[in-house]
Amino acid sequence: MSNIVTFGIMWIVASLLGEWGATAWINAAPHGTGTFWGSWSNLGVIGANAFDFLLWVAVPIFMFVVMFLIFAMVRFRVPKTETNPGDAKDQRRVNKAFIGIWIVASVLINILVWLHPNASGLEQVFAAQRVTKTEHPLIVDVVARQWEWIFSYPQYGITQAVNSAGQDVLYLPVNRPVKFILQSYDPFHTYDATINVMHSFWIPGFGVKQDVVPGETRTLVLTPTKITSTQQDPMVRVQCAEVCGPGHPYMEANVHVVSSSAFAKWAKAEAAAGN
Ligand SMILES: [Cu+2]
Q1: Domains and CATH numbers, the chain
Q2: How far is the CA of 84 from the centre of ligand 1 (A)?
C-alpha cells in the first residue's frame, strides 16, 4: 500500500473517533448542553455554538498533525544498517506540492473561521443588542464600585435591590430581554473620583462579560433562558472580572432568574420595602 493511502486511512479513522469523542463531550457537558459551563442566555448559546463548531473543525486538523508525526516516525525510521543517520537522503527531501497544499489549506481554514463562527456570531450578538421598545426590555442600572455591585430598577422604583440579609441581589425574569446600563463610580464617595476604577460585569453562566469603565456608560442586552439561581448553579452569579483592588475576588452578587409572576411579586415587595 502506498504511504499516502496508509496515512489517509489512519487519518480518517482517527478523525472519526475524535469527532465521536468531541460530540459525546459536548452532549455530556456538566450542564447538559454545549461545551461551556454556562449557556443560560441567548448570548451564551451563540458562544457555545461557536465553541462546538471550532472543536469539530479542529479535530481533523489536530489528528492530521499527530497521525503524520506517528506515521513518519514509524515508516521513515532509520534502518539499523544506516551508518551515517544524520545524512540520510530521506531527511533532506522536499515535497513542494505538499508545502503548497498545506499553505492554501491553512489560509482557507483561517478564512472559514473568520467568516463563521467569528463574523456570523458577532452579527448575532450585535442583532441581540438592538432591542426595541415593543420587546419591553427590563432596564437594570448597574453601578460598580469598590467593591460592590448595585442594581436599580427604574421601571419599578427600586433604587438598590437587596435580599433579606441586606446583600445586593440581581433578580431577572426568565425569557424577557434585559438591558443592563453599566457605570463605574462610587455613589457614597462622589467627592473622590480617584477611587473610580475599571470593573468587569461577568455572569459566567450567561456566557457574557462587559467591562465597566469610569466616565463611560456601556450597555449589555441579553435574555436569560432558564429559571435558576446562584444557589442552584454557582456559575450563575455576578462576578467582577477586572482586578480592581484587594476586594476584587469578593466583588460578586447573587442572581435569581425567576418566572415573570415571581419577578413582579418580588419587584413589588422590594419597592414597598423602600429599597
Ligand atoms: Cu474587580
Answers
A1: 3-78+95-129 (no CATH), 135-272 (2.60.40.420)
A2: 61
Tell me the three cell numbers of residue 77: 525510521
**206 within 8 A of 41, measured Cβ to Cβ:** yes
Taking the centre of ligand 1 as the mean of its atom positions, its distance from the CA of residue 201, in whole angstroms, is 9
**234 CA to centre of ligand 1 in angstroms:** 18
How many whole angstroms from 252 Cα to the centroid of ligand 1? Answer: 9
* 10-19, 188-197, 253-262: least confident range: 188-197
How do residues 79-89 score in pLDDT, each as one tens digit?
Answer: 777 776 666 66
What pTM was estimated for this model as a whole? 0.86
252 near 230, Cβ under 8 Å?
no
Distance 241 CA to ligand 1 centre (A): 6
From CA 87, how far away is CA 97, in angstroms rounded? Answer: 23
